[in-house]
Amino acid sequence: MRGAQVESSRRTVNGAVEPCPIAPVVDVVYSKWTPQVLWCLLRHGRLRFTALRRQLPQVSAKVLAQRLRQLERDGFVTRTHYEEVPPRVEYEATELAVSLGPVLAALGEWSRRHAAEVEAARAGYTGPLVS
């Protein structure tokens, strides 16, 4: 009954169900590797590309560059380019990203508490595999 109550309370004037209010942020913040990039910048502060790449060795340079551009575009990361020889570029979490810190920490805590349950559910699942 609770699901029906939530759905009926989320109808717009024209009768359509409102979209989930966190969907736009989930699409941005929880793209593949984005939480890890944000976590590193929040934890270590300003980092050069190579230092960030060392923190995330499983991410290719191409994907890391794409994620950093996306995060910069969306206001979560600032990129500072220094006119030096050789050129130096540093990335840093913005205040917007810092405001996500508690959310990421809560998700980390949830993961620590429930990862074994998720793994057990996966191990016991006998339905079709999802790709």
UniProtKB/TrEMBL annotation:
Pfam families: HxlR (PF01638)
Domain HTH hxlR-type span(s) in chain numbering: 20-119
Alphabetized UniProt keyword annotations: DNA-binding, Transcription, Transcription regulation
Superkingdom, natural source: Bacteria
Molecular-function GO term, any one: DNA binding
Keyword Transcription regulation among record annotations: yes
Family matches, as Gene3D superfamilies: Winged helix-like DNA-binding domain superfamily/Winged helix DNA-binding domain (1.10.10.10)
Designated name of the protein: HxlR family transcriptional regulator
Organism, scientific name: Streptomyces diastatochromogenes
